[in-house]
Design a protein that fits this description.
The chain has a single domain, classed as Trna Endonuclease, Chain: A, domain 1. The mean pLDDT is 88. It is globular. A five-stranded mixed sheet has the order 1-2-3-4-5. A hairpin with a 6-residue loop joins β2 and β3. It has four helices and five strands. It has 125 residues and is an alpha+beta fold.
């Protein structure tokens, strides 16, 4: 993803706007359809996740992603950690459980300009 940002995004596109990054990742994930249902900004648990990817077949893992914009490149790792923690704190896996998704990959993603830090959590089972 970072390579794509470096090649196609303008500095002005990435200026502290989580919505730009959200749309960017959502567009990339569209290729997962029709095997998955890609859902943006959906309520689950005590809030709403940024991106949920629900498998259409049993036995395939789902994916939940939370995005945040870091204040600096040095803050990328901590910001990704906060995004990952938010998935747990807000129980974003609730909708996955309701839909019978047994395994969910969790990702906290931090952006700063054209730099990205992605932090994977333990797989929910």
């Amino acid at each position: 993803m970072e390579e794509y940002l470096k090649q196609i995004a303008s500095f002005h596109d990435t200026a502290e706007k989580e919505s730009f990054y959200h749309g960017f990742v959502l567009g990339i994930m569209a290729w997962l359809m029709p095997k998955y249902r890609v859902v943006s900004n959906r309520e689950s648990g005590y809030g709403r996740f940024d991106l949920g990817i629900f498998p259409r077949e049993a036995g395939i893992p789902g994916i939940v992603m939370e995005f945040k914009v870091a204040d600096s490149e040095e803050a990328l790792a901590e910001t990704a950690k906060q995004a990952l923690a938010q998935i747990e704190e807000k129980d974003y896996l609730a909708e996955f459980r309701v839909q019978g998704v047994e395994d969910v990959w969790r990702y906290g993603v931090a952006f700063c300009g054209k730099k990205i830090r992605l932090l994977a959590g333990e797989v929910y089972r």
